[in-house]
Design brief:
Low-confidence stretches: 1-73
Mean pLDDT: 81
Helix content: 10-25%
Radius of gyration: 22 Å
Signal peptide: 1-21
Organism: Micromonospora coerulea
InterPro entries: GerMN (IPR019606), Gmad2_Ig-like_dom (IPR018911)
Domain GerMN: 107-193
Strand order of the largest sheet: 7-13-12-9-10
Shape: globular
Number of helices: 4
Region (Disordered): 28-79
Structural class: alpha+beta
Number of domains: 2
Length: 301
């Protein structure tokens, strides 16, 4: 009987070792920033004020050649999962978020949402997608996700094809199980985020996202490669009037990309639409340049 038990155990181990790599799942989704900030309020002054908190000095996740994914989390207690999608605007990569019913097939979820394209509000803000429907992950092994591509995936000019691949790579590599993407089985040169780092705009805003409902003070996060690492933020009401402003310093400045985090308070008599504007101040003439505008909903404060 003892010999029979040992033999059965060995058979189970052999079967497990020979099983194919698990497909259709990328593991837990990355943590999505809360759209509503509930920290202690701060007053918005007439001019820019330093953002609260020191900037992170760890190596940024979006530096060229880096494939470190975002932090991960389990599905929320209410059965939803938040994924980051990388759309395009003016030929550059732009992130946004989706909170959807939780599923183990996170690769399918991410690719389906990427192909479905931006919401009406995101489209109005200039976001688009060049990723067609039908792509799917067929294998994940050694942190490489292998795709089966739909017909026409590589159609179009070289710039469009590269942007399409960049959207897929930056979306899939947010998950801890994926560091690179192989486009079709047998692809000898899978690529990670660093291969498309030049498709990031000077300022990337990871939070808030288009359409978020915000309360004062607002926390703004992202990465930037700007002069002297200085990132400025202001909040505008529905009429375009400035109701809050701040600035912060990214973890790295000119010639390299670094994380930034800024907190800015505002005052608003009645809730309504507004805009979070993140920008660089030109060293040449003081103009706002590399401006990123995020349409949001502002609560009264």
């Amino acid at each position: 009987m003892r010999r029979l038990t040992i033999a059965l155990a060995l058979l189970v181990l052999l079967a497990t070792g020979c099983a194919p790599a698990r497909t259709g799942t990328l593991g837990p989704a990355p943590a999505g920033a809360s759209p509503t900030v509930s920290a202690a309020p701060t007053s918005a002054g007439a001019g820019p004020t330093p953002a609260t908190g020191a900037p992170s000095r760890r190596p940024p996740a979006t530096s060229p050649g880096t494939t470190t994914p975002a932090a991960s989390e389990e599905p929320s207690p209410n059965g939803t999962i938040t994924v980051q999608l990388w759309f395009a605007r003016d030929g550059k990569l732009v992130p946004t978020r989706r909170t959807l019913p939780a599923t183990l097939a996170t690769s399918r979820l991410a690719l389906t949402e990427l192909a479905a394209g931006p919401s009406a509000a995101e489209a109005a803000a200039g976001l688009t997608t060049v990723v067609p429907a039908g792509g799917q992950v067929v294998r994940i092994a050694d942190r490489v996700a292998t795709l089966a591509l739909p017909a026409g995936f590589d159609a179009g000019d070289a710039a469009t094809v590269r942007l399409r691949r960049a959207q897929v790579v930056w979306t899939l590599t947010q998950f801890p199980t994926v560091g690179r993407v192989a486009f079709t089985p047998g692809d000898a040169a899978p690529t990670g985020r660093g291969a498309y780092a030049d498709l990031l705009p000077a300022i990337v805003v990871t939070a808030p996202a288009v359409g978020d409902r915000l309360a004062s003070p607002v926390t703004v996060t992202g990465t930037a490669e700007v002069f002297e690492a200085t990132v400025s933020v202001r909040i505008l009401d529905a009429g375009g009037r400035e109701i809050g402003t701040a600035f912060t310093t990214a973890a790295c400045g000119s010639g390299c990309r670094g994380d930034y985090r800024a907190t800015v308070g505002y005052r608003l008599a009645a809730a309504g639409p507004g805009t979070v504007e993140v920008y660089e101040v030109s060293a040449r003439d003081g103009r706002r340049i590399n401006v990123v505008r995020i349409p949001v909903l502002l609560t009264a404060r």
